[in-house]
Amino acid sequence: MGIWRKKTFRYVLILGVCMLLFGFIVKDAEMKGSIQKRLADYSNSFAKSKHLDGTVLVVKNGKVLFQKAYGHSDQVKGIPTTVNTKYQIASLSKSFAAVSILQLQEKGLLSVQDPISKYIPDFPNGNTITIQQLLTHSSGIPEYYNEQLDKNKKYSIDDLIDLFKNQPLSFKPGSQFSYTDSGYVLLAKIVQVVSHQSYEDYVTKHILQKAGMNNTSFEWENQKNVATPYLSDKPAQKLSSTMLIGAGDLVSTTEDLYKYTQMLQNNGFMSAKSLKLMETGYIQANSDSQYGYGWFIRKPTFFNNHLDIYHAGSIPGIKTEIDRYVNDGLTIIVLSNNWNGISISDYSNKLASFVLN
């Protein structure tokens, strides 16, 4: 009788463990399904109510949770958006300049603490402005870009620098944060001077080709499958690809940008030490974020201590954003070609909340 009871207890115990494990498996499957469904349902609703034309990619730990294209890349011609549609990525381009600078620093060809006069001798106040201050938008150099610039003109880096080099500084270098494209134009110039090649050639060889970013390039004027920007459903004039050299000059896709973020995190472009320099906050940029080198660093109190390294881009008719929750393996990329009162940041944050909560 005692032996029978022991065997029965053993069978019951095994059955209980199996049922418990099965319950965990079912619950895990339901959770995964529910997250993906919530991402899809919210995105579909958002696209319908806000008229989002664009491409969305959500990846966690290398697995795609959500990927979809909405609307049209060209409304006039009726060309639908696809996951392979290319977009002007605006200020998401800035981190490429920052990577270039850090690569050159690793080679001993420059230091982020160097004054910019070492590389651009004739720049006013160049002896009081460091490369790091250019990287962190704390140089005091005023913004050059405005709507009055000739959108059809082909600019050189020197043409752009001439637009602001003789303007007085807005504040003492290093004393505060003021977002400006001008500093990143100067960074592109420094890359050219130090590497002895054009900025475009340097980035193409040392970043784009290295990451296998075959759908990313500098010129979009003569390319196919590039989204047309819209302002309230009316076509916006595309900027010349030379108007924002170093600051907003690239065209890319969500998948290529994901390759880029993975190369960053896996130290494919530079050492872990340099990556840490890039992702360290040096100056307060807004109420919840500091600025590193080409990235905003959002305080880890956001989303219950989930660190968010992010950047947004904005030019007429184009809105873009990358959010990298690096400690969670979560990357969210949104590229849109229609300004219609939408907030890409709010949308991206909502997607993150579904995954992280």
Automatic annotation (TrEMBL):
Beta-lactamase-related domain ranges (all copies): 54-341
Places the protein is found: Membrane
Transmembrane segments: 9-26
Gene Ontology terms, MF aspect: hydrolase activity
UniProt xrefs under SUPFAM superfamilies: beta-lactamase/transpeptidase-like
Entries under PANTHER family matching the protein: D-ALANYL-D-ALANINE-CARBOXYPEPTIDASE/ENDOPEPTIDASE AMPH (PTHR46825), PENICILLIN-BINDING PROTEIN 4 (PTHR46825:SF11)
Protein name, per record: Serine hydrolase
Organism the protein comes from: Heyndrickxia acidicola
